[in-house]
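The instructor's notes for this session suggest beginning with a concrete chain rather than abstract definitions. Hand out the sequence below and ask the class to guess, before any prediction is shown, which regions might be ordered.
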Amino acid sequence: MAAIVGGLIAALIVLPGLGLGTLWDNSETTYGEVAREILLRHDWLIMHFNGSKYFVQPPLYFWLAALCAKAFGVSAFSLRLPSALATIALSAMTGYAVSRQVGVRAGVYAALLLSTCVMQAVIGRLAIMDALLDLTVSMAIFWWFRGLQSGRARYHAYGAAAAGFGFLAKGFVAPVVALLVIIPYFFWNRRHERTIAPSVRSCVLAAAVFLAVSLPWPVLLSSTEGFSMAPLAILFGQYTIGRYTGIIENQGGPLWYYLPVIILGFFPWFAFFPMAIVRGTQLLRGSVDPARARLLRLAFVWMVLPLAFFSLAQTKLPNYVALEFPALALLTALYFDDIVTTGPNRAAVISAAFVPVTIGGLAIAIAAFVSDNKLHAAAAAILPVLSALGAAIFLFALVVTVLIASRSTAWAAPVVLAAAAIVAMDTAAIVLLPAAEAFKPVPRLAAIVQRERLPGDIVAIQNTRGGNALLFYTAPKVEVLAPFGSRARSADGVDPHAAICNAPRVWVVAPLPKTGEPQTFGPTFGRQRRLVASDQRAVLLLYYGSGCD
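After discussion, reveal the predicted structure:
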């Protein structure tokens, strides 16, 4: 029951408007292009990007996205569908695992909270591999948790299979984080109740299953390169270990980087989270049902250790910490379940009242950001919608405060707030995503290129954001031009003289000069140049004609 409810609620969050709008640059267009090039090249073993071999990420997301694109066509919907389905499965799995331990109500609450928090709504709507990672890590933890409880080898094998698919989704981080949670949980829990360590047979079976799932692809990949370890060194060295020990693509951050991510990502449920921690600690110190106690221990370990692990990493991104949100939902769901069982308390009412206060604070922060950054015109199209959504959630939050104050209605409080979150997030997706297209000029310029290009034309971009979007919405290969004056291939890109002179016609997306600056776009190298279109701060230029100096 809890699994069905969890899956349905997650579907209501991530599926409406899933295909609206173009892909976001940079990650969505990058990963979407890798998936598209599987179909273009008919090569499912070696990933490619812009016509070159791509060893940055493992293949699971790209395989699934390519299958969806083959079934439904290459589109934002098909490329985002694997993330949406993984998010639905994660909510269903969470509801199932919790309800099996402490009952359907707590399981429904856990799935409800997880599905309707901001982080899950965002991750489930993006064409990236993090939703698959979150699903596989959670499945590994929940299955191994069940194995330590029952002693049955098959649960350890199920967890190992999930960890293997997690490895194919995003590398070693999946089994590492799952083990980082389950091993400390084992030692903590066995101090309080019988916890069955996996037998040698179970360990061997689990290791065999993990290798059977995870090993074939890297072995086959290496074999295509003459059994060279170079591709694996790039994948697991530079882009896995390298992300932890160094800063990749300027994606660093302070030690406390993930604290505001958790506060915003677990909205609107974060208002109840501090008291959930307090209540959970009190229950563990007192007399509590063993099933509830073991879930509380799992939730605390799952929250603390991955957070510490990712906080110590040098490269940081908000989505990295999303894999611990099932623990946040689990702990807060147990808190709601306890309120219904034992009756409301003052702390619960205060927590509920904090939700509308938080919304007011967010509104002030958004208004200040718009004013400070002179974004009045850009925000004009979306602020009315945001204001209406904020007002609606504000009113729903007031209703929740009233409901949670009474024992007879406390059970409905999380249901009402979740309903408000579903309406708000779906409305935001359906209304705001199309409005955001006004700020993404490259897909529109790419459409002009696709409509007017001739065989042999070259497409290029110079000094403008959106190169991956230009590639995705045209076709490989897109040249990235170095600044004018550079004639050598370097990290800055290709020599513009060579690129502009090497084809009958060359399409170039370039920045529009700032107001007050002369409208010049660099040398023509003896060719003719036409300004085809301008859009926002970008222009589309066409170089053509004979002769090149």
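Then share the key points. Residues 76-102 form the longest helix (27 residues). The mean pLDDT is 86.
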